[in-house]
């Protein structure tokens, strides 16, 4: 499969003579930016360039990266990214820049393809443990050499990404259970799970100056599922709320027990979902996918994965949305006795 479906044509740009301090958060939020000089692209700058090159101007922080073609295959581009140490690359066709490509978009597609085709994902997860562990080693080295508050914020974000990736790998390495056992899951604590999900997005919330309202009960609430898997479903909804809420917008997360269930709602006052897209929202590679309010890209798989997880563990999933006003997703968990608790 070539990378054409994953090329982001709505890329972020910065001027070559911008001060790094002024555009640092923009680059972090978008995973990279095309650098322009006299309105012409001269390269691509990433967060890693900023960390490893301590200069004041964007042009001085640029590093050489391979150019890729839309006809290159996903494995080829992933190898280029590994060799260059960059998770974002520029895509050219006939020497003309047509967009950027992100590692996360391709790896998300690969993970979903493996799951749906019942390939033995444990072998893949095992092979990923070493590069994931190496990534943490690099983060620790950078942490020892950087002292600024902005740099420490970057390091904290990288550590959170490592923890999530490591948890996913560990989950994939668990022995496979029968369908009946998998569907039943374990007893999970919803309030602590939500708090962990909220903590993971704090930097993204700050980058877009979004107001976050969190209304959670003080007592523990128990339901059924598998903590890391259910967390993935919630993360997908929160990520969408962030993508489709404008800067200085608002996201509200609530949870409350009612009649043997716990109702979790995640609402935003973002751009909403047009009526024509609603019937296709949970389809795999849905045609309802759109760029976020700051140009964030989507593969159209997140809500499809969320729906599958909810169906697996008997979580009722619904949504309401009005275009230009916002969207609310509802997750209805059946309550469980305390039993065997799984915390994040």
UniProtKB/TrEMBL annotation:
SUPFAM superfamilies: ATPase domain of HSP90 chaperone/DNA topoisomerase II/histidine kinase, CBS-domain pair, Homodimeric domain of signal transducing histidine kinase. Residues 123-337 form the Histidine kinase domain. Pfam families: CBS (PF00571), HATPase_c (PF02518), HisKA (PF00512). Residues 61-116 form the CBS domain. Its main location: membrane. It is found in: Cell membrane. GO terms for cellular component: plasma membrane. It catalyses: ATP + protein L-histidine = ADP + protein N-phospho-L-histidine. Keywords: CBS domain, Cell membrane, Kinase, Membrane, Phosphoprotein, Transferase, Transmembrane, Transmembrane helix. It is a multi-pass membrane protein. One of its GO terms (molecular function) is phosphoprotein phosphatase activity. It is an enzyme of class 2 (transferase). Its EC number is 2.7.13.3. This is histidine kinase. It comes from Pedobacter nutrimenti.
């Amino acid at each position: 499969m070539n990378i054409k479906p994953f090329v982001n044509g709505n890329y972020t740009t910065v001027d070559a003579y911008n001060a790094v301090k002024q555009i640092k958060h923009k680059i972090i939020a978008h995973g990279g930016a095309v650098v322009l000089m006299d309105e012409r692209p001269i390269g691509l700058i990433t967060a890693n360039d900023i960390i490893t090159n301590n200069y004041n101007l964007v042009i001085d922080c640029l590093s050489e990266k391979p150019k890729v073609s839309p006809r290159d295959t996903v494995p080829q581009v992933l190898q280029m990214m590994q060799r260059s140490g960059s998770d974002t690359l520029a895509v050219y066709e006939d020497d003309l820049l047509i967009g950027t490509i992100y590692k996360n978009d391709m790896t998300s597609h690969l993970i979903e393809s493996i799951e749906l085709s019942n390939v033995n994902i444990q072998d893949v997860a095992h092979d990923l443990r070493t590069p994931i562990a190496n990534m943490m080693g690099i983060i620790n080295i950078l942490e020892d050499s950087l002292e600024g508050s902005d740099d420490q914020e970057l390091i904290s974000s990288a550590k959170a990404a490592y923890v999530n990736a490591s948890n996913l790998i560990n989950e994939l390495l668990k022995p496979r259970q029968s369908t009946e056992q998998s569907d039943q899951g374990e007893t999970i604590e919803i309030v602590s799970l939500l708090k962990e999900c909220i903590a993971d997005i704090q930097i993204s919330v700050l980058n877009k100056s979004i107001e976050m309202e969190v209304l959670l009960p003080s007592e523990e609430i128990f339901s059924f599922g598998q903590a890391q898997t259910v967390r993935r479903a919630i993360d997908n909804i929160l990520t969408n709320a962030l993508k489709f809420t404008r800067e200085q917008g608002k996201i509200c997360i609530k949870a409350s027990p009612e009649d043997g269930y716990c109702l979790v709602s995640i609402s935003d006052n973002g751009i909403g979902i047009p009526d024509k897209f609603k019937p296709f929202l949970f389809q795999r590679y849905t045609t309802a996918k759109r760029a976020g309010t700051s140009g964030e890209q989507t593969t159209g798989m997140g809500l499809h994965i969320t729906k599958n997880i909810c169906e697996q563990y008997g979580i009722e999933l619904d949504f309401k949305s009005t275009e230009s006003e916002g969207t609310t997703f509802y997750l209805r968990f059946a309550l469980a006795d305390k039993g065997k608790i799984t915390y994040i």
